[in-house]
Amino acid sequence: MDLGIKGRTALVCAASKGLGLGCAEALAAAGVNLVMNARGTEALEASAEHIRQEYAVEVITVAADVASEDGQKLLIETAGEVDILVNNAGGPPPGTWQDWQREDFIKALDANMLAPIALMRALVPGMMERGWGRVVNITSQSVRAPIAVLGLSNCARAGLTGYVAGTARQVAGKGVTINNLLPGIHATDRADSLDAAVVNAKGVTLEEARAERAAGIPAGRYGTRSEFGAACAFLCSQYAGFIVGQNLLIDGGATNITI
Ligand code: NAD
């Protein structure tokens, strides 16, 4: 399917691996040129080169911590006039509700709420002036139903979701859509590290931890980055201009809710 976005430019944050990489690959497959970001250079350069070879699009890399003001400044300067912004960063560590101190909350808010807000504030005005833009924020299923051990994520993502709910409706009239994708469990490094925490806590093997988690997902498996990326590319397509301020769960049915 031609998504109608060939030749557009996207900034994809935290994109050297995992869900961000899935989004970058799907956008590249639709002919979108990329500015790809991650903290380290090695995996970022490897993923960027793979995408250049595979999809023949232009790819610029920016190694920077998107959670830091310096990183955001560098990304905004390098990205210039982007049509598409995919906000993403690593998720906060697990714990219990009494563990977290003020500094832990500030770190989570910086990465998973304030960084996407800063990039939207910087890049959405240009999209509005040009009359077309797409923003997709990668959040979490924890927005719809809290995940007890991820209290920091529950808080930061809820804050971002509130910001998007109000903002999306203020910019839609200029051809810019902002939506959130809510991943459930996907087979990425993040899922590995959460499963490793279960291994330590319960004394089971990694395979047992994965099987137990997969059994709780109606689809019976973890999601893949390419499935996730395809949903992102659709939300960034010319066909998604009437989808505004939505929160789309991609979780294999794991979140047991009616709407
Ligand atoms: P991941 O850990 O597999 O990938 C992380 C990617 O982000 C890497 O490319 C890494 O370099 C980059 N990154 C991390 N922090 C960064 C930062 N501060 N600045 C720049 N780059 C950074 O993670 P993932 O599984 O792809 O998850 C992406 C997001 O989705 C995370 O916020 C995660 O919490 C959330 N999420 C993931 C799952 C899942 O099952 N994978 C489920 C729910 C929510």
TrEMBL record:
It comes from the Bacteria. Signal peptide: none annotated. Pfam families: adh_short_C2. Belongs to the short-chain dehydrogenases/reductases (SDR) family. This is SDR family oxidoreductase. It comes from Sulfitobacter aestuarii. The lineage of its organism: Bacteria, Pseudomonadati, Pseudomonadota, Alphaproteobacteria, Rhodobacterales.
